[in-house]
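queue> holo job accepted (zinc ion)
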Amino acid sequence: MIHVGGASIQIDFAPGSLDVPQRDVVQWIDTAARAVSKYYGKFPVARARVLVVPIADERGVLTGTTWGDVDGFPAFTRMRLGQHTTEQTLASDWTMTHEFVHTALPSLSPDHHWLEEGLATYVEPIARAQIGTLSPEQVWGGMVRDMGKGEPQPGEDGLDQTHTWANTYWAGALFCLMADVSIREKTANGKGLQDALRGILTAGGSIDDDWTISKVLDVGDRATGTAVLADLYKKMGNTSYAPIDLDLMWQRLGIHSGGGKIKFDDHAPWADLRKAITTAR
Ligand SMILES: [Zn+2]
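queue> job finished
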């Protein structure tokens, strides 16, 4: 049992052997819980259980899955971990943080999985940056590399109708990036997506509760005093939409990439927005 961000997290190990000592696995879970607690201001649920399942002859963090309201726990996460996983793999892993981000959003209907996965994809590196286990260059480098996967393809409908992997994870993440930037623009960088998400959590919206997507977006918008989430959903949720000019987005945020390196331009118009996104608060 560990205590992080006001929550108790019970950690159990299924039968099987792991090369790394259990205390390294506990440390890995603890770090992910701290990242998510930092981002949300507390761990999203009061009690959670993590079941670590060793998988013989494999290496690495194989899969994670999180459910709400299981056996009296508001959140239950199962992590399948290869027997030969190393300490270094655990130290650089993103999966555990991704799973804990899922605990901070109410369960939505299947058409809206893109918001559940998109949020976890977008928030995970930012939460890790806010506790210093990932650099801002790594966060934005990953976004520049992967965000284009979320662009709409010719003939595709809106987010609710397109159930591909790319749409579910990366169009969802792109929705979150656009929401974050737009909230910050409209509030003179006073608020961001982080405030909307904290507002949803404060209103009782965690994984053990079922909400409609309109309730999630309304409560989130109320927390930032904007209508950004509802407006974006109107544009992207149920109808096809034009591709986003990501080159322009990176340029405005002051992110330049070349030769595998990320360089920041602090004179870019949205440089302060970019900094605020990865800054702990
Ligand atoms: Zn996920």
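queue> The longest strand covers residues 61-70.
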